[in-house]
Amino acid sequence: MEYEDFFQKVVLITGGTKGIGKETAKTFLLNEAKVFIVYSKDEEAKNLFLDEIKSKFSKFINNVFFYKGDVSDVNFAKFVFDEINKKFKKLDILINNAGINRDNLLLEMKLDEWKKVLDVNIKGTYIFTMLAKDLLIKGQDPKIINISSISGVYGKAGQVNYSVSKGAIIGMTRYFANKYIKHFIHVNSVAPGLTKTEFSKDLDKAKVGEIINFVSMKKLGTASEIKDVIMFLASNKSNYINGKTILVDGGFLI
């Protein structure tokens, strides 16, 4: 799909080598944006994505930049923003997509499972949002899009850490939308339902079927469907939307 808004825009996507992040990164590349992609440890996923770019989108190969690190590490985040500043002196769009889960029953959840999810999902989003401001101020129609989840709206059994983290992202979105609008930076979030990605492929089929029973459309979402909403929020067509969370969940629990 072609968009008019993203030619030469500078975009930063955390968690950008798989699933929703990868689908979004590809779309920005195809629309001639400069795309910085942060990923944590999966070197194979990064190399597969790079190979795909070389084979299918080779003319955009010089428009993509990969950085490996922990989004909850403030020094790593500062390094990424320093790199963006050196190369382009601005940032137009930040997509806080990096997220992990460590599901477990409440009484069996270990403190490390709790802490790691909150560090990546909440702290990582906070750090990148805070550090992005100075470069976003120099951008054109700057936008921040945070990726939450319906788990942050409804809560799910065995996901207290994940649900808390994604609910916090919704609250953080409202806070920064109010704080940053004076700089003309829009901040919104997307809350996907269960989506066909690497994140969900290992789930028990019976559990997936149970979730689908609560979805009015009786199917899982796709990364492409979530990506389309992200692209809308990143575009000028969303300029009168601020501080909102859009649920893209196929009609979950209606």
Describe the protein:
- The protein is globular.
- The protein contains 8 helices and 9 strands.
- It is of the alpha/beta class.
- Helix 1 packs across helix 8, helix 3 runs parallel beside helix 4 and helix 4 packs parallel to helix 6.
- Strands 3-2-1-4-5-6-9 form a 7-stranded parallel beta sheet, sandwiched between helices.
- Helix 2 links the parallel strand 2 and strand 3.
- The two termini are 30 Å apart.
- The longest helix has 26 residues.
Give the arrangement of secondary structure elements:
Layout lengths: L9 E5 L4 H12 L3 E6 L3 H14 L7 E5 L5 H15 L4 E4 L14 H26 L6 E5 L3 H4 L5 H21 L5 E7 L2 E2 L8 H8 L8 E2 H12 L10 E4 L6
Parallel strand pairs: 1-2, 1-4, 2-3, 4-5, 5-6, 6-9, 7-8
Observed structural traits:
globular; 7-stranded parallel sheet; single chain; two-stranded parallel sheet
- Which residue ranges are poorly predicted, with pLDDT under 50 across at least 5 consecutive positions? none
Mean pLDDT reading: 91
- Count all strands and give the number: 9
Order of helices and strands: EHEHEHEHEHHEEHEHE
Strand content: 15-25%
Radius of gyration (CA) equals: 17 Å
Quickly count the helices. 8
Biggest sheet strand order reads 3-2-1-4-5-6-9
Question: TL;DR?
Answer:
The chain has eight helices and nine strands. It is α/β, with parallel strands linked by helices and 254 residues long. Helix 1 packs across helix 8 (223-234), helix 3 (74-88) runs parallel beside helix 4 and helix 4 runs parallel beside helix 6.
